[in-house]
Amino acid sequence: MVRGRCAAGTQAGADILKNEIMSQGQAKKAGDGTMARRKEAGTLALGILSAALIGGLALPAQATELELGGTATFTTDYVFRGISQTDENPAVQASFDATYGIFYAGIWGSNVDFAESIEIDYYAGITPEWKNISFDIAALYYSYPGATAIDVWEIKTGASYTFGEAFTFGATNYWSPDGDYDAFELAGEYGFSGKLFNFFSPSVSGLLGWQWNDAAPDYTYWNAGLTLGFMERWSADIRYWDTDFSDAGCIAFNGVAQNCDARVVGTVAVSF
Fold first, then answer.
1. Beta strands in the chain (DSSP E)
2. Which of 41, 116, 158, 205 would be 146's cystine partner, CB 3.0–4.6 Å?
3. Is residue 5 situated within a structural domain?
4. What residues form DSSP beta bridges with 173?
5. Dihedral Cα 170, 73, 24, 5, nearest 10 deg
6. Which of 24, 30, 44 is nearest to 182 (CA)?
7. Structural domain includes residue 2
8. Is residue 4 situated within a structural domain?
9. 10 Ramachandran zone, left/alpha/beta (phi>0; psi -120 to 50)
10. Which structural domain range is residue 31 located in?
């Protein structure tokens, strides 16, 4: 089965929980169109990496200490790049992270509806800043214990900029050296300054992404949602997801037509 990453499921579906709980989810195509888009994405990723490295070298020395943390999440559907990884069923997820200055590493897990019903991801990266631009450069490894030939690596290169104190806009590229695909995302988030009912800290966010595959259909995905942070470490999120897959295209890519349909997903998470 081919899932939301063209050869494997996943990622830390924690992309939606940025408000208060985390800073930290066929036949080969002919022609040059896909390869041109992959080259453009690769060029952008290289530019982000170069700028981040230059920015990192320009950072002043700062006192650092090791910080440990984690998250626990319940979601009504584990959606990765617009495609359900749990056959539209709920998922329980958890992560553990270690941060030291601009360096971070962690592990994340979730139930899925394929392989041996479990996914465990490992990741490590750096988050330098330069001229008010925040970079995120990381390696991610998606693993499925008990399954064969579906584990996959990704290289993540991202940059974001916060306008004022409320609106953040970012671009991120995910390239798989062994999965023959690229994914590129544009994302924005606006955090409201006031409290809702004197209790919730609301924010709205959205994402538009494209995945280009060498041996499967290319597709576009998007989401938009509302996040309510509360009690400092908790978050509740309601989010609309969709893709441009037809039923036939989703079957060719994922094996299950309804996994690519529009859906509303609810998520509750806590950080510690």
1. 66-75, 79-80, 83-84, 91-100, 103-111, 118-126, 129-130, 133-143, 152-163, 167-176, 181-191, 201-213, 219-230, 234-243, 263-271
2. 116
3. no
4. 157, 184
5. -50
6. 44
7. no
8. no
9. left
10. 13-57+64-271
**Running DSSP on this structure, what letter comes out for residue 247?**
H
End-to-end CA distance of the chain: 35
Quote the Cα angle for 199-160-50, to 5°. 155
**Tokens 């409290």 — which residue?**
195
DSSP H/E element including 35: helix 33-58
In contact, 129 and 59? CB cutoff 8 Å = yes
CATH of the domain at 219: 2.40.160.40
Q: Measured between alpha carbons, how far is 111 from 246 in angstroms, rounded to an integer?
A: 26
Given this model, what pLDDT does residue 51 score?
Answer: 53
> Of 222, 219, 236, 220, nearest to 187 (Cα)?
222
Integer Cα distance of 50 and 81 in angstroms? 26
Q: What are the per-10-residue average pLDDT scores of the chain (272 residues)?
A: 36 37 30 42 54 50 83 98 97 98 98 93 97 96 90 97 95 91 97 94 98 92 98 97 95 92 98 96
Distance CA 70, CA 162 (A): 25
Neighbouring CB atoms inside 10 A of 80's CB total 25
DSSP per-residue codes, 92-122: EEEEEEEEETTEEEEEEEEE-SSTTSEEEEE
Tokens of 86: 């749990």
- Identify which of 34, 53, 38, 49 has the alpha carbon closest to the alpha carbon of residue 177: 38
Flag whether 6 is in a domain. no
Provide the domain count of the chain. Answer: 1
Give the residue carrying structure tokens 């750096």.
126
